[in-house]
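Bench notes, afternoon.
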Amino acid sequence: MLLEVEGLDVRYGRTHAVKALSLQVADDELVTVLGANGAGKTSLLRALQGLVPASAGRIRFGGVDITRMSPPERLRQRLALVPEGRQIVISLTVHENLLMGAYCRSDSDVRRDVEGVYDRFPNLAARRDMPASVLSGGEQQMLAISRALLARPRLMMLDEPSLGLSPLLVERLFDLLRNLRADGLAILLVEQNTQMALKIASRGLVMELGKVVLEGPSEALASNDRLAAAYFGHAAPHAG
């Protein structure tokens, strides 16, 4: 198993954002995490990347315990996060933003990988020497994903990547994620577009108030009434 999370707790002062959460992601698997705003999804991803400390629990990645590792150390283990809001540096050029994704690498293949990004995204190639501020929202999201790809991740985590995109760009985004998975990249996807996320994911988890209240194969979740209940802030009662 590529990612193994056991009993993860995240606290911000008195706020208990993630409660005894466990999940697994296998190599080449796409798993989606769903839930209403405030469910703890972003806190989960930030804890996995090391941006906030875990107050309890264990995180193993590629067989290595990374629970106490710093974010750069986790990136060197090839765990990468595409944060909500993209967080590209608009004063830097497109090319400079891409190179930021490779800052933990010391191999000689960075230039080749950058050119591979430009081959995949011609719009970025055409603007490589322009400040990132000239990019559209969709192009900025592609840049954020490409920046993460420059870390050569084994697992890419994405936090609400379709937020603010037009329906056409959302379709293109999910096509890209599907293709990345087909190329062998494992993906952990936090996404409000439940229908699209479940179409491309093999499994899903539903969070409510920091806890996993429902999980299973995507097809089963798509037809489960408890998924809708979780989005309204309360879980439906168990049958029986």
